[in-house]
Amino acid sequence: MKPVLLLHIFLLYAVTWSFATIIKVHPAVNSIHHAANIAHSGDTLLLQKGIYKEHDIVISKKLTITGEGFPIIDGENKYQVFIIASDSVIIQGLQIQHIGKGSITDMAGIKIVNAKCVTIRNNRLINNTFGIYLQNTTRCNIVNNMIHSDAKDEINGGNGIHAWKCTHLSITGNSISGHRDGIYFEFVTDSYIAANTSFDNARYGLHFMFSHNDTYTQNTFKSNGAGVAVMYSKGVIMCDNEFVHNWGDASYGLLLKEITDSKIEHNRFTKNTVGIHMEGTTRVDVRRNIFQDNGWGVRVQASCSGSSFVENNFIGNSFDVTTNGTMMLNTFNNNYWDKYDGYDLDKNSIGDVSYYPVSVYAVITEKIPPAMILYRSFLSDIMDQVEKVMPTIIPDMLKDDHPLMKKLKL
Amino acid sequence: MKTIIKYVLLDLLKNKTILVYTFILAAITISVSGIGDNASKGLLSLLNITLLFVPIISILFSTIYFFNSVEFTELLLAQPIRRKTMLLAEYAGIAIALTIAYLVGVGVPICIFFYNLAAVILIISGLFLTLIFSALALLIFVLFKDKTKGIGAAIIIALFFILLFDGLLLSFIYSFSDYPIEKPLLGLISLNPVDLARILVLLQLDAAVMMGYSGALFKKFMGSATGSIYTVICMLCWTIIPLITAAGIFKKKDI
Fold this sequence. Notes:
The complex is a heterodimer of chains A (410) and B (255).
Chain A: H1 2-17, E1 22-25, H2 31-38, E2 44-47, E3 51-52, E4 57-59, E5 64-67, E6 72-74, E7 82-84, E8 90-92, E9 95-97, E10 108-113, E11 119-121, E12 124-126, E13 130-135, E14 141-143, E15 146-148, E16 161-167, E17 170-172, E18 175-177, E19 183-189, E20 192-194, E21 197-199, E22 206-209, E23 215-217, E24 220-222, E25 228-234, E26 237-239, E27 242-244, E28 254-265, E29 268-270, E30 274-279, E31 282-287, E32 290-292, E33 296-300, E34 305-310, E35 313-315, E36 319-322, E37 329-333, E38 336-337, H3 360-367, H4 378-389
Parallel strand pairs in A: 1-2, 2-5, 3-6, 4-7, 5-8, 6-9, 7-10, 8-11, 9-12, 10-13, 11-14, 12-15, 13-16, 14-17, 15-18, 16-19, 17-20, 18-21, 19-22, 20-23, 21-24, 22-25, 23-26, 24-27, 25-28, 26-28, 27-29, 28-30, 28-31, 29-32, 30-33, 31-34, 32-35, 33-36, 34-37, 35-38
Chain B: H1 2-15, H2 17-35, H3 39-68, H4 70-77, H5 83-113, H6 117-143, H7 147-175, H8 182-189, H9 193-205, H10 207-210, H11 213-222, H12 225-252
Helix pairs in contact in B: 1-5, 2-3, 2-5, 3-5, 3-6, 3-7, 3-9, 5-6, 5-12, 6-7, 6-9, 6-12, 9-12
């Protein structure tokens, strides 16, 4: 009985010791600074509605900063606002706007430096250079923020969510638009990016460099300058995402460069100039995706190897697959191609003749892009037909031996 | 002039070839539109049909008709009528007949099945092709005295624009692929009305592919308002220049 009683007493004290006070903050000169100074670890700062013109607020204690009715913290286009240098800080319900541009420091609405378990949720970050900036952090949660800016070009803009050298991040439910890159990852491992919407960004919706073992799922990337780029990483899992309408002469739905042992499943690529562009990838599993109404469904460079394309739907793309050489070390199997015109005599719903997804005109325009001006002319149709009878130009190693007769239900 | 157009039209309707042409176009359009599960695929097939059939039929039929009605022409020329008026009236008659055939055969079904900008542009380019190739037929009629030679020339001209020109253009692209040839290409393409029509429609349909490297340049120009106006002016030139030339030659021609 005694140890239990002791435990009870201990717990009771523990509660009283950490009994957090709530400090109400009203708009005044340096009121947040002041509140952050007098607060003890574990306290809550309750920011009342209004406009606060404060900057470089360093949070070095475990505080919860909550806004009531979205109080506005304005950087006056000159400064940065929050710098979090303590573990377990929570920031919620604030509107942070007009962060300045710096050539020495990357100015951000909320900057998290060398901290763990920080939570940023339900904030609005408007017209900032960088929205949320994570630097050497672990186990941070970035949830349901609205991050919007109006970066005109790649040089002057910053990134919506910028993470450098972090692990175990969770970035969910954010809406990011008008930045340089929507979400930028460099040396970020074991992280989870889900249900975000990234659109109208000047460069990439999501930009991934040297970030291993990350998962991104159920995100929507729409109308970004160059789509999504995933580079120099291994063990990346991309599933249930939507890549829509990334149009332009150097625009891709998804750009993969030097990616190893990754999975791309259940995604939907619609109306992109190029659905997936693969360069130097190894063992990437592309399964059960929908490629619809793209200029090029998949562009697989000859430098890719060991990848497999299984059970995808290719519908209404101008060119389904294109490549830049004759060598093909990747496999295509059991896909549905709407351009397939073979037959199925044994009624097993798998076509009896192989399908060559690279059309002769795709090869020609890959070599000489201006030849696009003759696309779909009577001449190019004849060339396609001749090539079907006697393949000489198209890479004959790139074929689907088991093309499906019916569209997969995905 | 109006009387001549009226008689030419009446004669063409009696001829029934126009009716058959209309019927075939309508049958193809309806069957193609019914098959495809997506609209752009159906429109693409229709584009191919328009680019292939309209030039050949227009030029062949007009040439044959002009040569067959030589006696009617001679009879008319005995009347106090200007040669130019007479010739243009005959052209107008046959162009109107073919235009109506195209509108009924392709235009109406297209508007019923897929009513969008691409469809409208397809109809407009088809109409231009009809006008252009019947004007070329008039030029052939004026240039050649012999019917057989005339028909031969018509076939060659149609094949040239449909197939041969593109072949030459492709070999041009191949041999000069190391140079920035996008802009010269845009100029060269205006020399072929069939290509102009194709690109106008493709810009509406295959927009994503046209956004690729050099496609973007074509789209930037041809897809803009200036580009569209330029294309329409090119097509108009392709109609008017053969007509003026034909009228000029016919004026001095010894019949």
